[in-house]
Amino acid sequence: MQEEQELRLDMDNERRVKSRYPLELNARYQSMGAASPAAGVGQTVNISSSGMLLACRSNIPDGTRLKVFVEWPSLLNGTTRLQLITVGTVIRRDLMGLSIAFESYQFRTMGRAQHSNVTQMPERVSASYGGPQPQPISMVAKSSS
Length: 145
Prior knowledge:
The chain is mainly beta. The protein has one helix spanning 2-12, and strands spanning 26-31, 39-47, 51-55, 65-76, 80-93, 97-109.
């Protein structure tokens, strides 16, 4: 009963407008327009449509604008990896990491080549399907000088 009342009081004192969801996702970040550029890696602790808590080892000061690239766990159409790209401002830094308020965010596809599970391309199938293989063509480039 006492724990319920404490939890209710904590929720009543919550200042966030948007709900935060506990998601632990890999992320990369880089400062934008800072006098001393900074970049690094971390992991999201929680995220909402208005901000995130990013666990990382960083001494980036409050007020710094960051671009954060988050590896999203869902695939587009079941095949293409996605990343969430956010632009925001560091509003707090503590031992846990950075609290970031978003200015904007968007989902983008990640390159397929670097995440492909194809180890070797299949051999080329000729249009004749089993007929004689075409011979390579010799080409020579000439300049007009």
